């Protein structure tokens, strides 16, 4: 479950996707391994989530930074949640703690649920090339977990034609990324939107929709409920 944002304006942390989380994790999961590496104060991050019991689902929370053996914590986990923050800091910590292979194995081979939000969604993709974050630290590679074979731009913002700000829009930055050869599709997830991936099926959920960018093609607009399963297999959408 790849979520664009954790808090939403006027709401609580992950409150806008509470039902989606409970449906995704189900009743078999009792405890979730939380990875707070995207923020500097990991203790405070864990304290933020623990009283909420993952937004009312009743799931216990184990924070990986409190474990003396992060690799073993991943191997024993029932489900994994990686929260938002700085994507570069997060990915560096995943490499530093030798967790890239272990998380991939648990999710893709063992089939445990993975949930990411913002930076946690970025690292679930091919690479973090399309993050909005500043490179405050230097991970050994921009390659990420590769749980899905494309990239995502969380917090996607549409151009505001009324503003006089001259900085590049998200769309322009993604287009520049696609000027490089062999770059994968990018799904721009607006806040309030998430992508549910189950096996070979991917479905857009939430309330605000998404924008899909394919190299060499015009971006396309998609509403919640859109079937994005083709992104799991190739870079071209089916013919209408």
From TrEMBL:
Q: What is its main location?
A: cytoplasm
One cellular component (GO) term of this entry? cytoplasm
Keywords from UniProt, A to Z, are: Cytoplasm, Dipeptidase, Hydrolase, Protease, Serine protease
- State the EC number(s): 3.4.13.21
MF terms from GO for this chain are: dipeptidase activity; serine-type peptidase activity
Question: Taxonomically, which superkingdom?
Answer: Eukaryota
A Pfam family found in this protein is Peptidase_S51
Q: Which reaction does it catalyse?
A: Dipeptidase E catalyzes the hydrolysis of dipeptides Asp-|-Xaa. It does not act on peptides with N-terminal Glu, Asn or Gln, nor does it cleave isoaspartyl peptides
Q: Where in the cell is it found?
A: Cytoplasm
User: Can you cite a GO biological process for this protein?
Assistant: proteolysis
PANTHER family, alphabetized: ALPHA-ASPARTYL DIPEPTIDASE (PTHR20842:SF0), PROTEASE S51 ALPHA-ASPARTYL DIPEPTIDASE (PTHR20842)
Report the protein's function.
Hydrolyzes dipeptides containing N-terminal aspartate residues.
The protein's name? dipeptidase E
Its gene name is Aada
């Amino acid at each position: 479950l790849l979520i664009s944002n954790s808090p939403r304006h006027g709401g609580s942390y992950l409150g806008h996707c509470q039902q989606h989380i409970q449906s995704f994790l189900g009743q078999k999961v009792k405890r979730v391994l939380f990875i707070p590496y995207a923020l500097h104060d990991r203790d405070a991050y864990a304290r933020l989530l623990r009283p909420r019991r993952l937004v009312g689902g009743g799931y216990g929370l184990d924070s990986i930074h409190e474990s003396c053996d992060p690799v073993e914590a991943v191997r024993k986990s029932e489900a994994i949640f990686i929260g938002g923050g700085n994507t570069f800091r997060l990915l560096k910590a995943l490499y530093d703690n030798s967790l890239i292979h272990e998380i991939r194995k648990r999710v893709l081979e063992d089939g445990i649920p993975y949930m990411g939000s913002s930076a946690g969604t970025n690292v679930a993709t091919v690479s973090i090339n399309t993050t909005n974050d500043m490179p405050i630290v230097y991970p050994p590679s921009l390659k990420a977990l590769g749980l899905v074979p494309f990239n995502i731009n969380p917090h996607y913002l549409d151009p505001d034609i009324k503003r006089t700000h001259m900085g590049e829009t998200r769309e322009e930055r993604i287009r520049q990324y696609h000027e490089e050869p062999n770059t994968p599709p990018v799904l721009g997830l607006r806040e309030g939107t998430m992508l549910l991936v189950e096996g070979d099926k991917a479905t857009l959920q939430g309330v605000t929709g998404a924008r899909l960018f394919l190299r060499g093609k015009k971006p396309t607009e998609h509403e919640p409920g859109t079937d994005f399963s083709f992104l799991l297999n190739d870079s071209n959408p089916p013919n209408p």
